[in-house]
Task: structure prediction
Amino acid sequence: MCEEELYETKKQIETSIYEKICDLKTEAWVTNEPVAFEERYSGKHQYLKTGESWGKLFDCAWLNFQAEIPVKNKKRNMALLIDVNGELLIVDNNGNPLRGLTSKASEFDRNLGEPVKHVYLLPQVSAEKDRIGIWAEAGCNDLFGNVKEESVLKEAALVICHRDIRQLYYDFEFFLDLSNHICRKDDRNYILHKLETSAALFHSRRKNRIKSALALTRDLRQLHIKSKPIEISAIGHSHLDLAWLWPIRETRRKIGRTISTVLELMERYPDYIYGCSQAQMIDWLKEDYPALYNKFRDKVMEGRIEILGAMWVESDMNMPSGESLIRQILYGTQFWRNEFQMTINNLWLPDSFGFSGIIPQIMKKSGILYFSTMKLWWNRTNPFPYHSFRWKGIDGTEALSHILPEGTYNSPALPGSIAKILRKYETQTMPRHALLVFGIGDGGGGPGAEHLERLKRLKGLFQNIKVRQRKVSDFFHLWEQKKQDFPTWEGELYLEKHQGTFTTEGRSKYFNRKMEIQLRELEYYSLLDLLLCGSPYGSEQIESFWKETLLYQFHDILPGTSIKRVYDESWNRYEVLMKESERMIGEHLKSICESLDGKGPFYFNSLSWERSQWIFYNKQWIKVHVPPMGISNVIDEIYRWEEDDFLWSDNSMENKYIRIIFNEDGAIDSLFDKINKREILRKGEEGNRLIIFEDGGDAWDFGKDYRDFPCERPECLYSRTERRGPELVNHQKYRFRDSHMEQEIGLFVDEGKIIFRTKVDWDDPGKTLKTVFPVDLKEGKAICDIDFGFIERPIGNRNSLERAKDEIPAHKWVDISGSAYGAALLNDSKYGYRVKNGDLELTMLRCVPIPGEKKGFTDRGSHHFTYCFYPHKGDCIEASVDRCAYEMNSPLRLVDVTGKGGQKKTVQSYFSTGDSPLLIKSIKKTEKGEGIIIRLVESSGKRVSTILNSSFFATPGNPKASIVNLLEEFENDLLIKKGSIALSAEPFEIITVKIDIN
Result:
């Protein structure tokens, strides 16, 4: 018998496992959105027969399945086979989840197994009972949100399960796969001989043929196959994207299906250990399925379910701010501690698209020891060299890191899985430990019985390979024993794929940046109002704002790779969050102003250095200086026109610092630094050159050859310059096919920065919009803001590593500098840059196909954003580029309220670090108690010492100060002396100070 015939026999064995008794009578009540079990009859009613359609994409239904049981079958092993071409949750008579089922039709990679779960094993039916009735909640979508095969009822039958044939099938499947992997020739021949004999018995008409065939395949379980030594820890998992090709509401239902499936299988497989990540997911489980949550919690306490990952969600790790990443861990850790009395010491991020170099320090200062991912195996050009390594962040902190060697978190747990792991370890001698994560994700219910049957057969099969179901925490304990031999990787973990995600769905990026800044200011001004006026802080409301913002940082939402509905819903929610948080800020600022001795308007500065800004107020332009994290009602200057302030025409702008000449296309022909007497742009090239590329890519990736085709330019309809008080403004209007763009290019009287306030109405699919500034530097480097620090990246294409870093992520700025001169490109809501050979590019919009069934294009519609080109002497530190970017993103606030004291001048700083590069990033109330948390970050990449000052440190009541970690746990005492605290910091160090104060 040839191998092809053995595979055909395997299929025949599989079709013999279940013997049909009868079809199920099926009724459906269909709704557009989910309804509770108590309202299950409220939908549109229909009787369903096999082959009939019951809904459209994302429809919901309550289904009832009924059957009469013949007397002769009541004591046999019965089951239901159900496939509704969607996802299904079987519930008990009270609506509590029992088991999730999934469709056979799915786009899941069949190399990783079949995603279908269509078998529901019935409990033993009593002799008196002759009818069954089952309720189930359905979703008209498969694992990946699609509708396959017209959403018809494919199968609904009552069957007998022949368990001996089922075991024979699992043996056949397993040993056929084994024969193609790992085995030596003699072992392979022995296996195939046994399977051929067993197959002949299966096909024969002999009595007890199945029992005899099973006896032969069971002999194979006694094999001890030789191989290279390795210890493999296997854990069940269901990677569940909190939104992707389905809306968030469907994720909440997927959780119920998945966890009920896990718990049902645990009753049958005592070795089964399951790993569950994302606190947000379990918080939803608790809210939506309380009875199921209680069972889940019991299994966690038993040690059968392991909590993985300390974060609130499995976030994107390039674009969220450093404070957001801290809050992901803080709120995640709080949840696991409150619900399960557990502190999680690992960061579990199998699917995120690259990792910032600030993460190791955040991990260490949150008590997290281990980091695990998978996606780095997806590098396009340079295979990542290690599966186990020390990851050294930009500050020098190290994190022990493991990349899942099989290259998937959906392992089928077959012998082929072991072979993949062994290949990854061929060239490395340490450590001989690997993590295997098995199951079906994204609503597939996690592991199925097939995974657990395979693991039973893997156990003890090899002489030198140990495969055990084991907690990830136990794996890390074994694995780290060889940590002294781990190689080191420094800096970021850049993924050479998915580079389009730094730009796709620009409105989400806009909201994310604005919301992070809004939350920072809300916390600070809430605390200030509490300290000055005793007003309520609003901890619960602020926490809810944070948690929802963190949800939208999930690694498919913020990167722009979800379906349109996800963005329609999240943008609406962002609007609500922005409006409500702004209302709260306004109330706190008004309360503070009314308590002061002075006349308004008052100007507030939330940043930790003194700053000034031109403001148009009461029909005049005024300049105000506001102290660090302080307030002022003093007008420093009223703008009065001077003849030599500006020179301008409709194609030029000039002040004392810089001269700009535009061409007829609206781009900048010349950008001349009058102070340093140098042309900033390369000869013959244009600045702010708006370029449009044909982008044949998708939401994740640019088209591979998009730069090989000629780029296009929008048509400049007009260019007109006017003076607006202390600012010259060049108004430009552009058109490109069906898209329109306006820019206000601003130049203030007292600085050399050029501001580009931009409005775009985009309606041209398949296009990417960029701006480029070709800076005239003979040599230099790119310094990129990654928040809580910066990173140097290559600007050339000298080798494959540099070529692979085509599009790069950055936050508020990227600077290219030589030894004496440089230029920075700042922005208020963008994250995608390209820096090659002196060209400084900002990627502004990508109009590419939206993922999912209902096709559309990303970034269509209206966008508002601002960027700024800042030429400067010296490097980015000398030019205070970081501070300029913060000021652009966090303008002064004006509150036109008169205080209680009439005309008195008020100039007050509440917190300050002077001119130090140790910047105050956030100030908030402590999570517990009545203290203050002050988070500082060293921003220059150098060792520094400074003084942290605050008028609140000198208040009565003997305030106490201490250093705490990012979870706000005590580390060591600090001395407050005359209202000041002396601090020292290592390069890029995060310091968190706690003040206990009445």
User: Anything to note?
Assistant: The longest helix spans residues 564-595.
